[in-house]
Amino acid sequence: MEKTLSSTTRRRLDVQGMNGISDEALAEIFPWQRMAYLMCSILAGVGTALASPIILWILVPVAGLAALFPVHPFDLIYNHGIRHFRKTGPLPKRAAQGRFACGIATVWLIATALAFQSGFPITAYVLGFSLTFVGLLVGTTDICIPSIIYNAIFLRKQDR
After folding, report:
1. How many domains does the chain have?
2. Which is nearest to 75 in space by CA: 46, 102, 104?
3. Domain that holds residue 48
4. pLDDT in tens, the chain (160 residues)
5. How far is the C-alpha of 37 from the C-alpha of 135, rounded, in Å?
């Protein structure tokens, strides 16, 4: 059975910088492309719900590494494990848009953890649950707000 992408999904993935990858290659792996965003979002949500700066601080280096390198640390779970069972190809390297999103998430996680530690729980809950929402949005619908921001700032209109 051949997998396909809807034109909406394709556009959303292109916003994330995946415009150089064929529809066929993306259709095969695109649900797994979401895994890192979902894992981070769930952990950030749990850390926020539990008011646990420790969980948030644990996520900081994960997000930071994802911002610095083209392979998200959680993508390694798929690339070195799951894909061999699924008999699919590896996840593509993350484009600048995805790394930018992880950079924003790193700062957001730091701010949230510091707000909890500094006795500003309302601020921390607003920050943490907002971050969780943004991550779940990209993880479930492929709408990546930081990628949209990146494209608006760094890409000329004809490059999009």
Report:
1. 1
2. 102
3. 41-159
4. 457 889 999 999 999 999 888 888 898 888 899 999 999 999 999 999 999 999 999 999 999 999 999 999 999 999 999 999 999 899 999 999 999 999 999 999 999 999 999 999 999 999 999 999 999 999 999 999 999 999 999 987 655 4
5. 6
